[in-house]
Design brief:
three-stranded antiparallel sheet; single chain; EC 3.2.1.22; ten-stranded mixed sheet; alpha/beta
Length: 331
């Protein structure tokens, strides 16, 4: 009997242990399910943060351009680099009613601004700095310290880059790819004229030609146009590869004839001047001088404040205020 009872007690303990294991396993499974649900909820919550205007990090790639856009001379435009457009994707309206908007790429990366402008038959140029390091950009951690040079004069938060570095070029390919996924019609790579400045990298005009050729090839692979920003010394060399120019202050420095080569080739010059009081209190005499500068005939001229915010004045006297969601300090 003892043996039998012992065996029975043993069987009972085994049965109880088996049930206990099942309970433990069930509890662990329940905890895992809760953790997964909470984790997914937090992830979605974080993804859906970020201001108004239809921001959404999970936006699918936008329709890509099917051919490289070639804008015409006298194409009208607005440029806003220091604020985010406030445009309703469901019922888009934008002021002014111009052909082209040049906007900061990163600031609009997770919004529907590009597709909204396309609904209004606007072309979109996406701006990013190709030749300078900005510490507040999403990819700033990727820049090797050895490829970062001196501070830009007047822009204490930016530093010149070694544009010949393979690492820098790889980062810029990533930026062009972002513009492509956004559906941008063109890119506006800034600060490609480091050779004209104290840069700490011994940059030359040949470096800029090589860099802009590289960027043009990458943009064109994705059916996007590209413009030359300033860099007057390389206009003649780069003109065949560029679809437009973006120039700042050629009237101020009596250098518009350099960029008129674009107009002669049937390509626009998107021209910005920064007169005192612009965009809403520009001196009439100064405006006249900027709008009729020697060599600037046919330029798409716009008068802006140096912060390139929401306001603009045109040579025909129009003053406009584009609706924006947020305004940011310069730099």
């Amino acid at each position: 009997m003892e043996g039998k009872e012992g065996r029975l007690r043993g069987n009972s303990r085994e049965s109880r242990l088996s049930r206990r294991q099942k309970l433990v396993l069930a509890a662990v499974a329940a905890v895992l399910i809760i953790v997964l649900i909470v984790g997914l909820g937090l992830g979605l919550g974080l993804k859906n943060r970020g201001g108004g205007g239809g921001d959404d990090d999970s936006l699918p790639p936008a329709p890509q351009p099917t051919a490289i856009w070639q804008p015409k001379v006298n194409t009208s435009w607005q440029i806003i680099l220091n604020a985010k457009l406030d445009i309703d994707p469901n019922n888009p309206v934008v002021e002014p009613d111009v052909d082209v908007y040049d906007i900061d790429m990163f600031m609009h990366q997770n919004s529907r601004a590009v597709s909204s402008l396309h609904k209004l038959n606007k072309k979109v140029i996406c701006y990013f700095s190709a030749g300078s390091y900005e510490k507040n950009r999403p990819d700033s951690s990727k820049f090797p310290e050895e490829d970062i040079g001196l501070v830009l004069d007047g822009w204490p938060d930016e530093r010149w880059l070694n544009i010949s570095s393979p690492a820098i070029r790889e980062i810029m390919v990533g930026r062009i790819e972002i513009a492509s996924r956004m559906g941008c019609d063109a890119v506006d790579p800034d600060n490609v004229d480091g050779y004209q400045n104290e840069n700490g990298m011994d940059l030359t005009p040949e470096d800029s030609v090589s860099f802009m050729t590289f960027l043009a090839d990458e943009a064109h692979k994705r059916n996007m146009a590209i413009g030359l920003k300033n860099a007057g010394d390389i206009v003649k060399t780069m003109l065949p590869r560029m679809q437009f120019a973006v120039n700042e202050e050629c009237a101020e420095f009596n250098d518009c004839r350099t960029f008129s080569q674009f107009v002669d080739a049937g390509k626009p010059v998107f021209h910005i001047e920064y007169p005192e009081g612009a965009p809403f209190n520009t001196n009439a005499e100064q405006k006249q001088a900027y709008c009729n500068a020697p060599g600037a005939n046919g330029f798409s001229t716009i008068l802006k404040g140096m912060n390139l915010n929401f306001g603009a004045e045109y040579c025909d006297g129009r003053q406009v205020r584009t609706k924006v969601l947020r305004r940011f300090s310069s730099g």
